[in-house]
Every structure is written in structure tokens, then in C-alpha cells.
Amino acid sequence: MNTETDTRRGAESTDVDGAEADGTDQEAEERGVGPALAGDDLAVGYEPTDGPVVECEHVVLPAGEVTALVGPNGSGKSTLLKALAGQLTPWDGTVTLGDDDVYAMEKKPLARRLGLLSQDGSLPDSLSVRELARHGRHPHRGFLEPLTESDREAVEEALRLAGVGDLADSEVGNLSGGQRQLARVAMTLAQEPEVLLLDEPTTFLDLSHQLQVLDAVRELNRERGVTVGIVLHDIAQAARYADNLVALRDGTPYDWGPPDDVVTEELLADVFEVDATVRDGPEIVPHRPLD
């Protein structure tokens, strides 16, 4: 991480990172929220590349809060999210969910606690939206075990939160792109995870459906205290919906903290290569790309 940023955020990291990393499970339990998800001394990449795509000394998604990973294309946002989700084994370092090592956990217990909505979302067209949402209950059931009343309630609540209750009996193949994405959100919510990770869930959606997805995620966080990590391209949307931002540049966190602190004209120039004015809110007024 860049030295200037380390110095600037040093005091804040004690409050934001240190408070969550020490006694995470106890504090989260007392507050009725999901645990923190943290990565330490991470090096993450893809074989057979020579070097890591992401290098990160410490990153944390604070317990019960919404954290957005932002940055330009190729900055390592999705790679970092996959590593935090237990989907891409780091070359070095550790990922912890509360006090548990993510990569030491069995798949089913991990899936009961951590849900991931990935970018690749091919869906069987013949399923109804309700049937799709029921797939989210697999981590809570034994092999061939029928749905319980608790499972059915979780599915109906997930449909409500995702805003697709009126589409519950519709076949997935008859949905628009935005509706299909909301159906995928419902499936992930039905999992009832303590931590929810979403990789660019608003990509290719019109503005109305983008806001529906983000509203559903925010409502889940507020109602249940679920810890959320979300990759977003639009830093203005991220600043509006997230409690915290992690801005990445070239695979390394450049800055992190509350949007009011992170979204600066300097960051927009250094990370996004955009000349812009930042007003209270924060509100971003872009002017021109920088050479």
C-alpha cells in the first residue's frame, strides 16, 4: 500500500480495522450482526501468471456494515472478492470469517455463513423464480431432505427482499435481464448468510434495476445486520450505498474508510484518472479524463 496513504489512514485503521479485528465475533454477536471478513498479507493470482494480481497487507469488511470495492478495470476488485469468498486460494496470506479460517472450513458450513453472487449467472430457464430461490437453501439441508417450514419462510422472505415476490411463479426464461438478476439475488438471500458478497451485481442493468438491486442489499443489511462486500464500477453509487469504500489501484488498496473521507479529487485523479470536482455528499462532478 502506498506510504502516503498508510500515514493518512493510520489513525483510522485503528478504529475501523482494529476494533473489528479484535473481538470480532463477540462484538458482532452483541450487536446482532454478521461477523467481519478479513484478509491479511494476501497475494492472490491465477496460474500460470508469474506475479500476483492482488497484494494486500490488510483488508476488512467490518461486521454488520456495507463495504464497496471500487477501482478501474483491472484493479483487482473481483480477484480480491473471490479470495475473500473462499473461491480463489491465495498464494500467500489468510482470510478469516470472524475467528475462523475460511480456507480451513468445509464447503457446506461455509456456505451457511457466507454467500457469493458471482458475475457468471447462467440460469435454467424452465425453473420458476421461487424454485430458483429454493436452491439457496441447499447448505441448510441434507441430501434429498425435503424443504421445512423454516426453509419455505426463508425463501418467501428472500423473494420479498429482492422485490420479486410478484414474479415468484414466473419462469426464469421469461424474465428481463434486470428481473433475472433480482431472481439471482433472491436465491443468494435465501441462503441466509451472515456475510454476503456480490461481484458487480448491477453490470448491464438499467438504472431502475440497478437501484432495485442496491436497495435490496441495503435493506438486508439494515434488517438483519448482514455484513456486505460489493464490487461496483460506479463510485458515485458506491458512495451513496456503502458505509465504507476500499479503493484499489493496480491490485493494491490505495485508500479505505467512509465515503466522505475516501472520495477526494486526489483519489479520482490517481485511481480513476479523472479530473473531477467533489462536493458535499460526496457528490462527484467529472470534467475530463486525464492523460
Write a brief structural summary.
It contains eleven helices and twelve strands. By secondary structure, it is of the alpha/beta class. The protein is globular.
Notes on the protein architecture:
α8 links the parallel β7 and β8. The protein is 38% helix and 23% strand. α6 runs antiparallel to α7 and α7 runs parallel beside α8. The two termini are 23 Å apart. The protein has one domain: Rossmann fold (3-Layer(aba) Sandwich), CATH 3.40.50. The strands form three sheets. A six-stranded mixed beta sheet has the order 6-7-8-3-9-10, sandwiched between helices. It has 291 residues and is α/β, with parallel strands linked by helices. It is globular.
Total E-strand runs: 12
Report the CATH topology name.
Answer: Rossmann fold
Cα Rg: 19 Å
The amount of beta strand, in percent, is 15-25%
Provide the domain count.
1
The overall pLDDT average reads: 87
* Helix-strand sequence: HHEEEHEEHEHHHEHEHEEHHEE
Largest sheet: 6 strands, mixed
Distance from N terminus to C terminus (CA atoms, Å) equals: 23 Å
Topology diagram in text:
Layout lengths: L2 H19 L2 H8 L5 E8 L9 E8 L4 E5 L6 H8 L7 E6 L2 E2 L5 H7 E4 L11 H6 L14 H14 L14 H14 L4 E5 L7 H18 L2 E5 L3 H7 L2 E6 L2 E6 L1 H4 L2 H6 L3 E6 L3 E7 L2
Parallel strand pairs: 3-8, 3-9, 6-7, 7-8
Antiparallel strand pairs: 1-2, 1-4, 4-5, 9-10, 11-12
